Amino acid sequence: MTTTLVVQGLEKTYGSGDDAVRAVRNVSFETRPGEFVALVGPSGSGKTTLLAMVGGLLAPTGGRILVNDREVGGTSKRDLARYRREMIGFVFQANNLLPFLTAWENLLVPAILGSTDKKEAGARADRLLEELGLTKRRNALATQLSGGERQRVAIARALMNDPRLVLVDEPTASLDSARGRQVVESLIQEVRSRDVLGIMVTHDMAMAELADRVLEMHDGEIREHRAGKLADQVPK
Ligand SMILES: Nc1ncnc2c1ncn2[C@@H]1O[C@H](COP(=O)(O)OP(=O)(O)OP(=O)(O)O)[C@@H](O)[C@H]1O
Ligand SMILES: [Mg+2]
Question: What is the strand order of the sheet 5-14 is part of?
């Protein structure tokens, strides 16, 4: 199933009165099916705020987000939690792996806590670790993994629930450029082979160029849209 994302006149203001910060201002964009979008821009330009709203982690102060024609956040807290759980895969800069668990166990945390079939989840974790080139590191503790390996485990974990939208915030910030590139290439490959949408925030233009499209934010606004290197490969 192809996922569509439409963002219309989105606004986020933190605080009020003299302290108000208008972090996201009248942002509108649409994604094409199976697209991988990079979101770039200076520190404080609103990238994380925008991503958090799309992911249902933060309520907008104005505008709308439609995923598959349904408004995100237009419903109850429970629906929002379900939206995050079923539709979204998150990967953050600090990958939040649990240090005292192995790579494989980190993938299984939601299944262990929830009602998912553990056997099936275990097999799925093995498949994802293999796809990301981590089979040999399966039983290593998170603390024993390199930075790039940890980020790839975080990507695998984000894919465990078969999300329709993968949201990634600065996945390569702690990595050198060769490892960073490997992580982003794995991510793009995973996103493409599943026909899900990917949005990745990055400071690194070399990484952004790997995407289908680059959106540039300044002072809460999207100022520029341009094609990335993979643009001609987007299914039309
Ligand atoms: N919880 C918050 N309360 C108040 N202001 C906030 C909050 N979170 C972010 N801001 C402000 O909103 C603006 C946008 O922040 P945001 O974190 O979205 O930027 P960013 O583009 O992700 O920056 P960076 O590249 O440094 O991660 C900034 O001015 C920031 O100080
Ligand atoms: Mg940020």
Answer: 21-30, 5-14, 62-67, 70-71
